[in-house]
Amino acid sequence: MRRYGKHTDEDDIRTRPGRRNTRPRTNIRPKHEDAAEGMVLTVDRGRLTVLVDDRVVMAMKARELGRKAAVVGDRVALVGDLSGKKDTLARIVRIEERTSVLRRTADDDDPFERVVVANADQLAIVTALADPEPRPRLIDRCLVAAFDGGLEPLLVLTKSDLAPPDELLELYGALDIPYVVTNREELKDGAAADRVREQLDGRVTAFVGHSGVGKTTLVNALVPEERRRSTGHVNAVTGRGRHTTTSALALPLTTVDGWVIDTPGVRSFGLAHIDPSRVIHAFPDLEPGTEGCPRACSHDEPDCALDEYVAEGHADPARLYSLRRLLATRERKEGD
Questions:
Q1: CA neighbor of 285 nearest in space, from 173, 141, 176
Q2: 42: pLDDT strictly greater than 80
Q3: Which of the 8 DSSP states describes residue 244?
Q4: What is the pTM of this model?
Q5: 3-state secondary structure 209-227
Q6: Is 279 helix (H, G, I), strand (E, B) or coil?
Q7: Strands (E), the chain
Q8: C-beta of residue 41 within 8 angstroms of C-beta of residue 250
Q9: Interval 241-296: pLDDT, tens
Q10: CB 3.0 to 4.6 Å from 105: which of 118, 249, 272, 317, for a disulfide?
């Protein structure tokens, strides 16, 4: 195909500029010191809803951030149209340093970790006492992820009208984890939500649980429908202003100061990314005993110094058993 006519002049010919005529590249990026601060509420296919002051703003990630992705709970800096009006779009130019991360992998052989939630203070692990039966291995894995990521765990046990909680609570008694026990009637009359809400005051809490345990029902009871609509009216997850728990969603509480982050139901919780040396930090009574451990100690081997430390009476043997059970859960399948 001819690009130029028969009678062309040299000025008609486009030439590629030489290297000397091009603008030099620079690694200097704008600081965006006037950028507004916000909190990421939802993430869906490259579009994020961000709370800026009292407005919900639709935004996208700036190219200069490269592969760094923002997740629900992230504190970000934005520029552009921050009015929150329909069909407007802001730009996220900076992701602030995270105070905690809840991470998981698809399975224990998957080398790629996924950050589910950022900057949460607490992880509420919702488990039914019956129908479906409790899955202690999944609870263990969630606990390990919480300890590794810097979140404090909270056990929320539902359907106590179908089975007593004593056996499950005894299993985790040595960990001294706060817990709330609810039944189906309390979920209907609001008593369950009131009791759980007391544990959420002043905190950002991520909720996890597998299908059928009542997690979404509890979140709906904690956050009234009108508050959900006012926060997520531009939510791109459904396009209808309602959340279907296909991705994480941050929701503000009403009667207390705090946030709930509802996450999709989990079938498995891979721990390929977990570093055992970080989990021990959640056991301050045992951590001093690791000073005599061999290098890269798994804390479950013959030369582990924790055995002697506990034998000398410095810590409760039940605590060491719990630590080793949690660390070993990475090598066990959830159904074992």
A1: 176
A2: yes
A3: -
A4: 0.81
A5: CCCCCCHHHHHHHHCCHHH
A6: helix
A7: 36-44, 47-52, 55-61, 75-80, 90-95, 101-104, 114-118, 122-128, 152-158, 179-181, 204-208, 249-252, 259-262
A8: yes
A9: 333 445 789 999 988 899 999 998 776 677 877 777 788 888 999 999 999 999 88
A10: 272
